[in-house]
Design goal:
Strand order of the largest sheet: 24-25-26-28
Largest sheet: 4 strands, antiparallel
Shape: globular
Structural class: mainly beta
Oligomer: single chain
Helix content: under 10%
Strand content: 35-45%
């Protein structure tokens, strides 16, 4: 699923935003408006369009930028059906947003193309220095052959000069097997930047022709690192996250065995060699369906907790202890009527959750927060959870901030969350936000939205 929080100071930054809790008394607390900010550009494209990955970057010439990846072909100042405004055509699942204005940067439009049965989608982006690393399912960028993983010189790409190619040709790692009968099943879902290298996760069995079970470590120059390796992983890896000390990596996905031993949806490995760490979720901590399977889509680690968003029936956000020796006992589990696909934890203990819970127009969801002045409201795709540290009080939803998301895909919703000191950016597969009087009275906003504090 999932691209990393980049830069990884997001945990600290979130503290200035998730103080939106009405129950908090600090005078400096920021209370987010339920209404999405006006002026943020929209994205659209073929059926199944969405934004699934993002990364932040500060440019000396363009200011703060949000790179987004997914499946889309156009950026528009106004939503589809509203005439006028600026338009950037010719996009192919990769774009750059001016974070001050919310507008797409027209000069940044690398051409991402697929080969054979490939879907031509971007599922992971990460920034290291002035390089943008891109993962997904594709065969070339700007005409250069790059199979499911590529590197782009950000400065050259923002310049938009076709005479100075931005794609870094020397970074030519091949993830998967070009031309294989199962070629359409190879994806890079995650890029986790290390100090001098990248960890990638997804659905593949080979990297540069060598066996790699759903994960690999690669130098910033594209060289496969042989010292780090995981084996016998029987399901896709969706997210990877460093522990607080950087010595280990938490891995989440759709697997039930890892290195040949039982590990359902979540495990922990060494950042040095990929061997299993002694820590693991306690027995039963990762809830599964009757088939014993689960997919955890996103994880976020602090020094004492691992937060996870999971769903495959049952669906939930949860936290596992990291301060209880080698046993990751569960401190809370908050059930939802659909997958939790994104989690972001704040230093004060609050947790942003995003997913497709309740986004289907035909699904009534779960009315909550009856104390609101406007009556009970449904939790639809995005919210803030309190009391998630397991310190006594039961977890609860922040009732003053319940934006509602709808879209053509009932299994879409929110896939990605990014933050700044004063905003929350939300991405996914949605076309409308907040319909107080029912459909037809919504905020039309496609695939990308931003929320700001109450003035």
């Amino acid at each position: 699923m999932r691209s990393p929080r980049s830069p990884r100071l997001a945990i600290l930054i979130l503290a200035t935003i998730a103080l939106a809790a009405a129950s908090m008394s600090s005078a400096s607390a920021l209370v987010l408006r339920e209404q999405a900010d006006a002026g943020i550009w929209n994205f659209d494209g073929p059926a199944g369009s969405g934004i699934w990955a993002s990364a932040q970057y500060s440019s000396p010439t363009h200011g703060d930028i949000l790179f987004v990846g997914g499946k889309f072909t156009r950026a528009r100042e106004y939503p589809v059906g509203t005439p006028g405004g600026g338009v950037v055509n010719g996009l192919s699942g990769l774009a750059a947003i001016d974070m001050d204005t919310g507008a797409a940067i027209p000069g940044f439009k690398p051409l991402v193309t697929g080969v054979g049965p490939q879907k031509n989608e971007v599922h992971a982006v990460a920034v290291v220095g002035h390089t943008l690393y891109v993962g997904g399912q594709f065969g070339a960028i700007d005409g250069q052959s790059h199979y499911n993983l590529a590197a782009i010189d950000i400065v050259k790409a923002l310049d938009g000069n076709a005479q100075t190619p931005a794609v870094i040709s020397s970074f030519d790692t091949v993830v998967g097997v070009p031309g294989a009968s199962n070629e359409k099943s190879f994806f890079v879902y995650e890029i986790l930047p290390g100090a001098n290298d990248l960890y990638i996760g997804g659905s593949f069995s080979k990297v540069d022709g060598k066996g790699r079970a759903k994960a690999a470590k690669i130098g910033l120059d594209g060289t496969l690192q042989n010292a780090w390796k995981v084996t016998q992983v029987n399901g896709a890896i969706r997210d990877m996250e460093f522990s607080a000390d950087g010595a280990t990596i938490f891995v989440a996905g759709a697997f039930s065995t890892f290195r040949g031993v039982p590990r359902v949806a979540i495990t922990r490995v060494s950042a040095v060699d990929g061997l299993l760490d002694a820590w693991q979720p306690a027995s039963g901590a990762v809830q599964t369906g009757s088939n014993g399977k689960m997919t955890c889509w996103d994880v976020e680690a602090t020094a004492t907790r691992l937060f996870a968003g999971c769903g495959r029936g049952p669906n939930y956000a949860m936290a596992l202890r990291l301060d209880n020796g080698t046993s990751g006992t569960r401190t809370f589990s908050y059930g939802t009527p659909g997958n939790v696909q994104a989690v972001r934890v704040a230093a004060d203990g609050d947790l942003f959750i995003g997913g497709h819970f309740g986004t289907n127009l035909g699904y009534p969801g779960n009315p909550i927060c009856s104390s609101r002045p406007d009556g009970a409201r449904r939790l639809k795709a995005f919210g803030i959870l309190h009391n998630v540290q397991g310190t006594g009080d039961a977890e609860s939803i922040e009732c003053s901030f319940l934006p509602q998301f709808w879209g053509p895909n009932g299994f879409g919703g929110v896939w990605e969350i990014q933050v700044t000191p004063s905003n929350v950016w939300v991405m996914g597969e949605f076309h409308e936000i907040n319909c107080p009087g029912g459909l037809g009275q919504c905020e039309n906003q496609w695939l990308l939205a931003r929320f700001s504090p109450v003035a």
